[in-house]
Design brief:
The protein has one domain. It has a four-stranded mixed sheet with strand order 3-12-8-4. A four-stranded antiparallel sheet has the order 7-11-10-9. The protein has twelve helices and twelve strands. The longest helix is centred in the middle third of the chain and has 25 residues. It starts with 8 loop residues before the first strand and ends with a helix.
């Protein structure tokens, strides 16, 4: 994907007090510590500034308890790891990395096949990217997509999970969507709006205001993913407007911010697809274990 590099991009840098016009956001922002905020009110004001000063971009959010970094071979941190799940935690050795990627893509294809057998809705059968987005959103297996939301409250609730003292909020700048599945050749990205594609009885995507983003074009073959694995262009840090470091989160919920409860973020009992997706995950796990006795031994504690 293309990194943010227009002259009129505004960001909160780690060492600046106010919003700043930068020539290069994205990767340069991701390589530095987060811009510290200490209250919900302060965060709202700064997100408002990002929204106002970047009118050509739609803001998306991702909340995490930690800022996971990529590292050099000698252990030095480089930038935030905002790769899609299929490209995370890969071995440094090229041959081993290729093997892991092939295994993950094979698992994704198995899950995709089983899912199509379970959910027979026309537009889902026609769009592989939508199926992959659903598999990613329900954590069935790693995919080339990254979970995002346009809800600041939802993203903050993930950052504040387990009553953590600190967290991180990533603010991404992407082109405005043109429909439920939107492709931008300019930014080399594509975005799936699951709330527009999943029926209302499928609660989780609606309750989380779920969007899934992917590099463009979609990597569907092992060689495509293997080629992208070490490359920075596949890291959504390329589209990072600001990285906020959220300090004293525990006190926010006692004063101004009320996190969305886990029962709402993960409405498993009322979500009519939750059991189906859980069964898909179980089936592909069993298939993988039966194909590889070593996996079966690990699953059983052997």
């Amino acid at each position: 994907m293309e990194t943010l590099k227009a002259n009129q991009i505004y960001s909160f840098l780690h060492d600046s007090k106010d919003v700043t016009c930068v020539k290069l956001a994205g990767l340069s922002v991701s390589s530095k510590p987060g811009h510290e905020v200490t209250s919900y009110e302060e965060l709202l004001e700064k997100v408002a500034s990002l929204n106002y000063y970047n009118p050509s971009l739609k803001l998306f959010f991702r909340g995490q308890r930690k800022d996971y970094f990529n590292y050099t071979s000698d252990g030095r941190p480089v930038r935030s790891n905002l790769y899609p799940s299929i490209l995370r935690r890969l071995p440094s050795n090229k041959n081993e990395r290729s093997k892991v990627i092939r295994e993950r893509l094979s698992l994704l294809r198995q899950a995709d096949y089983v899912f199509q057998e379970e959910i027979r809705i026309g537009y889902i059968h026609r769009h592989m990217l939508v199926r992959w987005a659903i598999l990613q959103h329900y954590e069935v297996c790693p995919t080339p997509l990254l979970d995002l939301t346009d809800s600041l409250q939802v993203a903050l609730s993930f950052a504040a999970a387990a009553e953590s003292q600190n967290g991180y909020l990533y603010v991404f700048g992407l082109p405005y969507q043109t429909g439920p599945i939107s492709v931008s050749v300019e930014s080399m990205t594509q975005v799936v709006d699951l709330s527009k594609l999943c029926p209302p009885e499928v609660s989780r995507p609606h309750f989380q205001s779920a969007y899934l983003a992917a590099d463009y074009p979609t990597a569907v073959y092992p060689e495509d993913l293997i080629q992208r694995a070490p490359r920075v262009e596949a890291n959504f840090a390329c589209r990072l407007l600001t990285k906020f470091q959220l300090n004293g989160l525990e006190s926010w919920s006692k004063t101004q911010f009320n996190p969305v409860s886990q029962d709402i973020l993960f409405p498993n009992q009322r979500d009519q697809w939750y059991t189906i997706l859980a069964d898909v995950k179980t089936k592909i796990t069993q298939q993988t274990n039966s194909a590889d006795p070593k996996n079966a031994a690990r699953s059983s504690g052997g």
